[in-house]
Amino acid sequence: MLSVIPQPPRCDHAAVWPALHHHALALRKGFDLRHAFADDPGRFAHFSQEAPHCFADLSKNLWDAPAEALLLRLARECAVEQQRDAMFAGEHVNGSEGRAVLHALLRCPRGESPPGLAWALAQVHETLDAMLAYAERVRADAGITDVVCMGIGGSGLGPQMAVQALQGMCGARRRMHFVSNVDGHELQSVLDGLQPRSTLFIVASKVFNTQETLTNARSALQWFHAQGGEDVARHFVALTTNASAAAQMGITITFGFWDWVGGRYSLWSAIGLPVALAVGAAAFRDLLAGAHAMDHHFRTAPLQANLPVRLGLLDVWNRNLLGFASRCIAPYHAGLRRLPAYLQQLEMESNGKRVDRQGRPLALGSAPVLWGEPGTDGQHAFFQMLHQGTDIVPLEIIAVQRPSHGLQGHHEQLLANALAQAQALMQGRSCDDGHRHFPGNRPSTFVLLDALTPAALGALIALQEHRVFVAGALWGLNSFDQWGVELGKLLARDLQQRLASGDVAQLDASTAGLLQRMRA
Ligand code: F6P
């Protein structure tokens, strides 16, 4: 059933690419957002987009309708729709690893399987049901007061981000702790104050050979036994595609997933157990439903009214046609404080590549640098640079219409600040004193969720996944491998031995010098 799709052209080989360059050049010389709004009363309506659980305003970006029309032609020439359909159909779009990419199947309701994937969907629901039943059993167990989730990258960031985002639904009875780093300070500070009989350890690792996670799991097991803990089966659970490796460590309760789920796309799989434990099975199903609604939008909405497509096209426009090398993410919701870190992995691990699918060097920039902090904190830290710095950095604001707290006045202030930043970046303010002059005409995108519910969070994350897919498809990348993380892992293994032995033979002078100093 599975086949490798024929390679569509990448954006810089598309026939429309020179016209886009030409248009961007003209725009860079004379485009001004303030005039664009003054000249076109329909600009907001044209550049805003409804999508499941959210609304996005793309109108304060440095583009115009002809630019978007050319970009839509680009999407067609680069066969974005065919590439999308190939992914949803289970074709081997992850060519360098020979794998299908089916994270969207994890949120597909029973009975709605794409043709030929009913077998996989049946496995998905069987595991989901078992994982959620387990989550409910633990939730009903008053003896478990603390859950320590150990996992890194896609096995840590997603669950942590989602649990924080949905904190309001979590209840105070059970504390959730997250440990990702191999730095023992992190694990130690979590273990201090815990009791083995009231703690559940979740070891989350797709491959189950990730150094950080296994080191933390071994130390947690040691601690558990040293503190008099006995029943490992009750207190340790593994989430992995490699159950036998978990069993070798003595962890026998395992929830699995499949090689067609990439680590950074795995929140929807058993890796989501911490979320299910925190918010319950029904809310976890709502998270999946929200993501599925966005999948449906991405698969069926025409390109010009398709939010992930429009955002992905805007990303390529900003990166390659206007030359902006970074994007700042400012969630205006404290619950989304780990969203920038989550999106960093999603986008920079997916599209931070220098060769295309065929291994040919790219002739243009790929993933921008993503960074950010929640607003309003960021406003008092680095927004200075967004307003008056020498580089233009597109800002993406993610705000939430309805708060889940009852404190008077806070949310209005928060939303007013979000609006004000986008407005100030665009409008600027003229002043003869250069220090007080704001140039304005600086781009921003505004995403507004109706409320930070599980469904809206699911839709937001799926939206981001798909916009990354669209940009990767235009750049001609395999967005689903991550070979760039391997070299450092390999060298760390060698250097760990050298740190023990003191052997610096064949090392460069800097590494040798540092290593010797560490040993002194
Ligand atoms: O090092 C990168 C990476 O492979 C990520 O892609 C992944 O999410 C993370 O490590 C953790 O991997 P695992 O879940 O297999 O432990």
TrEMBL record:
Record keywords, A-Z: Cytoplasm, Gluconeogenesis, Glycolysis, Isomerase
PROSITE patterns, per database record: P_GLUCOSE_ISOMERASE_1, P_GLUCOSE_ISOMERASE_2, P_GLUCOSE_ISOMERASE_3
Chief location category: cytoplasm
KW Acetylation (keyword) present: no
Catalytic residues of the enzyme: 349, 380, 489
Pathway(s) it belongs to: Carbohydrate biosynthesis; gluconeogenesis; Carbohydrate degradation; glycolysis; D-glyceraldehyde 3-phosphate and glycerone phosphate from D-glucose: step 2/4
InterPro entries xrefs: G6P_Isomerase, G6P_Isomerase_C, Phosphoglucose_isomerase_CS, SIS_dom_sf, SIS_PGI_1, SIS_PGI_2
Keyword Isomerase: yes
EC number: 5.3.1.9
GO BP terms: gluconeogenesis; glucose 6-phosphate metabolic process; glycolytic process
Gene Ontology molecular function: any one: glucose-6-phosphate isomerase activity
Localization: Cytoplasm
Reaction catalysis annotation: alpha-D-glucose 6-phosphate = beta-D-fructose 6-phosphate
HAMAP family: G6P_isomerase (MF_00473)
Similarity-based family: Belongs to the GPI family.
Protein name: Glucose-6-phosphate isomerase
Organism: Delftia lacustris
